Amino acid sequence: MAKEKDQEPHVDNTIIVEAPIEKQMKDAYLDYAMSVIVGRALPDVRDGLKPVQRRILYTMGDLGLTPGAQYRKSAKIVGDVMGRFHPHGDSAIYDALVRLAQDFNMRHTLVDGHGNFGSIDGDNAAAYRYTEARLDKPAMELLADIKMNTVDFIDNYEATEKEPVVLPAKYPNLLVNGSSGIAVGMATSIPPHNLNEVCSATIELIDEPEIEIEKLSRIVKGPDFPTGGEIMGNSGIRQAYETGRGKCIVRGVIEPEETKTGRQRLIITEIPYMVNKSTLIENIANLVREKKLDGISDIRDESNRQGIRVVIELKRDANPYVLQNNIYKHTQLQTTVSIIMLAIVEGRPMTLNLKEILQHFIEHRRIVVRRRTQFELDKAKARAHILEGLLIALKNIDDVIALIKKSKDVESARNGLMEKFNLTEIQAQAILDMRLQKLTNLETQAIKDEYEELIKKICELEGILADARKVDAIIKKELEEVRDKFKDRRRTKISASGDADFDIEDLIPREEVVVMVTRDGWVKRMPVDTYRTQGRGGRGVIGLTKKEEDAVNHLYVTSSHDYVLFFSNRGQVYRMKAYQIPAASRTAKGIPIVNLLQLSPAERITAIIPIKQYDEEHYLMMITKEGVVKKTSLIEYDTPRKGGVRAITLRQGDELRYVILTTGDKDTILATKKGLSIRFHETDVRPMGRTAAGVRGIRLNRGDEVVGAGVAEDEKALLVVCENGFGKRTLLKYYRVQSRGGKGILTIKISDRNGDVVGIAVADVEDQLIMISESGILIRQPIKSISATVGRSTQGVRLMRMDEGDRVVAFEVFPPEEEEEAPANGK
What we know:
Blueprint: E1 3-4, E2 17-18, H1 21-41, H2 51-62, E3 72-73, H3 74-84, H4 90-101, E4 111-114, E5 132-135, H5 137-143, E6 153-155, E7 162-164, H6 173-176, E8 179-182, E9 187-190, H7 195-207, H8 213-219, E10 230-232, H9 235-243, E11 245-251, E12 253-258, E13 264-270, H10 277-289, E14 296-301, E15 310-314, H11 320-330, E16 334-340, E17 342-345, E18 348-351, H12 354-395, H13 397-406, H14 410-421, H15 425-433, H16 441-466, H17 468-486, E19 493-495, E20 512-518, E21 522-527, E22 541-542, E23 552-559, E24 563-568, E25 572-577, E26 591-592, E27 605-611, E28 619-624, E29 628-633, E30 645-646, E31 656-662, E32 667-672, E33 676-681, E34 695-696, E35 706-712, E36 717-722, E37 726-731, E38 745-746, E39 757-763, E40 768-773, E41 777-782, E42 788-789, E43 797-798, E44 808-814
Parallel strand pairs: 10-19, 37-42
Antiparallel strand pairs: 1-2, 3-5, 4-5, 6-7, 8-9, 10-11, 11-16, 12-13, 13-15, 14-15, 17-18, 20-21, 20-23, 21-26, 22-41, 24-25, 24-27, 25-30, 28-29, 28-31, 29-34, 32-33, 32-35, 33-38, 36-37, 36-39, 37-43, 40-41, 40-44
Helix pairs in contact: 2-3, 3-4, 7-12, 7-17, 12-15, 12-16, 12-17, 13-14, 14-15, 16-17
C-alpha cells in the first residue's frame, strides 16, 4: 500500500509518496498501454478511424480542401495537424495521410493525392514538400454535418482548440476501408469490404434487428480487397463474422495465355492485398534460379496505369497448370489474411462480430441524426421567434415608428417595444435592426411566407424526434444515397472451395474429354480427339465394348477440370470433376458408376450436366418423363455431399429424364418420342426451391414420353435424331413460341424408316455431332454436313448407316476444337 509520509513539503513543493515498485510499474504501464490503444493504434467502431486519421480529415475540412478545391501542399496539412491536434511527429502524420490516398490500400480513398504517393511496388511517397492533397468524395460523407452539433468536441492537447471525438460518418467506414494496427498486447486487422454490400446489410439490420449473422453474411459476402484476388473458401470468413476472429486464404489471379507462335505463358493480373509486386517478382526469379520453379524462361513486368500485368514466359515442355500452382505454393501470390475485428467501443477495445459492428454504427447514426435534427429545430425556432416579432412590428408599424422616434436612445426604444408589444429582448432588437425596405408589401409577404415554412419545418423536425422509425428511415435513405453514389462491382472473388493446397488436380492437363454412361451404369472418360471427324452417313468406329444387352444412354463432351453433375431417375443429383471419372480406351467398357456414386438400389443416372462453376446467373431446368418441368437456381446445388442431394420431388410413377443449363431468360423446347415438340419461354416457369415438384411443361398423348429438351435460340437449329440413324436440322425460328402445358406441334414424321425419336439438340452450324449405337458403334461428324430444312414435318436424312437390328441410343453436340480438324474423309 502506498503511504504518504507526514512531513513538510520540500522546497519545490513536492510530496514524497512511498509505493512498491511492482505496483508503480504496473500502473504506469497500464496507463501507457491504454493511451496507445485508445489514442493512437485502434479505430473507433463508429467512424472506423484512428485519431490521427480523424484529425487529418477534420483539419483538411477546416482548411476548405473539399474535392472541388485547389490542392494544398501536404506539408501545410501535416503542419496544421501536428500544431493543432497531433503532437506525435510529422512522419507519423504524413504516413497516415499517404495511406488514405493510396488506392491499392484503401477500398475507397479518403484523400485525393496529387504527386507521388507511392506505389504497389513498395516505392515510398515523395517528401511532403513535393506532394499536394485535398479531400476525396467519400471523406465528405464522413465529415457531413459536423458543424451541426452532431458529435462531441474535446480540448486539444494544449486546450487551445476543440477537436471532434468522432466523425458523423454516413456509412460504416470501419468495414468499407478496414483498419490495421498494433497496440500494446493487442492488434486489429479488419479487411476492406464492398461499400454496396455493407450499406445493404446495414439497411437490412435496421429493418430486421433480430436478423441472424448468417443472413447478413449472405449480403456481405466477404472482404473485397482493392487489389482484387480470390478468396479460397468462405469458412474462415463465416468464423470471423460470427466471432470477430478468423483467417482466409487469398490468391492472386494468374491465367495461362497462348502467344501467336503457340508458346504458353502465365499472366498475373491481380495480387493479394498488401503484397509488394516487385518483391513478388523478385521472389519468383529467385525460385527459378534455385531450380524450385522449373519451366520458366523469362519474367517481366508490363504493368501500367490500366492495371497489373506480369508476364511469365514458359519453356516449350512446361505444364502451365502445374507451374501455376507451384507459384501459388511457393510465393506470396497466395497468402493467409488474419481477420481480427477489434475496435474501440465507448473507450474500451472490444472484439466484435459483423452484426455488432453494424449495430454500433446504427446507434451512432441515430445519435447523429437526432442531434442534427435538434440543431435544425433550435435554429428554426430561433428564426421563427424573430419572425414573430417582425410580424408584430409590421402589423403595428405606425406605433412602432412613433415609439422609436420618441425614444431618447436605443436601450429605451428596445425597452419600450418590449413593454408595449410584449416582446422579448431578441425580438425587440431584431425590430430595431430591421431595414426600411422590409416595409414594402413584397418584403412583408416574404416574411409571412418564411414564417409559415418554418412552422411546417418545426412540426416536421419535432415529428422526427418523437418517432424512432422516422430517424431510422432517414438513416436508411442516407445509406442508400451513399451506396448509389459510390457503389461498384466486387473486385475480390470468393471461391466455393476452400482447398488452396497443391493436389493431384494441379498435375492433370485441361483437355476436352468425352464422358459416356451406359444404360446398365458403366462410365468412362476419353479424350475427344480419340475420334476423327467423318462425313455424314459414314459407318463410324467402335466406341465401346459392351455387354450383349447393354447400350450407351449418355454421351457428353466437357473439360477435364469441369464439374459433372449426375442426375438420377429418382430425382437425386451427384457431382464430381470430369478427371475423377476413370479414363479408358476407345473400346473399353469403363467401370460401374456405382463405384463412383453412392446410388441406391434400382437408381440409375438419367441426365448429365457438365458445368465450369456454380453461380447465381444460371438455372437448371429439369424435365421428367411425363412432361413436368422445374427451374431452380444452379447455386442451390453447390454441395460436396458424396451421397448427393434432392434435385426434384417426383410424382408417383414419374422419373427425372433431362436437365438443361439455362440463364432464365431464354426459350425452352421439349420433344417427345412420337415426334411432337413444344417451345415456351422460361418465364412461364417460376424459379422454385431445390425440393419442389415442378409444373406441367407438355401434355402427352397415351404411350408418348419426353425424349429431349434444349434451350431454343432463333439463330440456331434444332437437330432431331431418330433411332434408325436418320435425323434432320431445322432452324428454330420456324418453331413458334407457345404457352407451357400444351400438346405442341409436329417436329419430324415418325415412320418405320426413321424409328422413334431418340433425342434433340440445339446446334450451331460450326458444331460437331458425336453419335453412338446400341452395338457400341460411334461416329463423329460436323453439323454443317447435315442440310438445314425449312419444313418441320419432313422425315430427315441419314446421319449414320446402321447394321440390321442396331439403333442409335445416344448422341451429343459440342463446339469445334480450336485446332484444325481432320479432313471430312477421315484421311
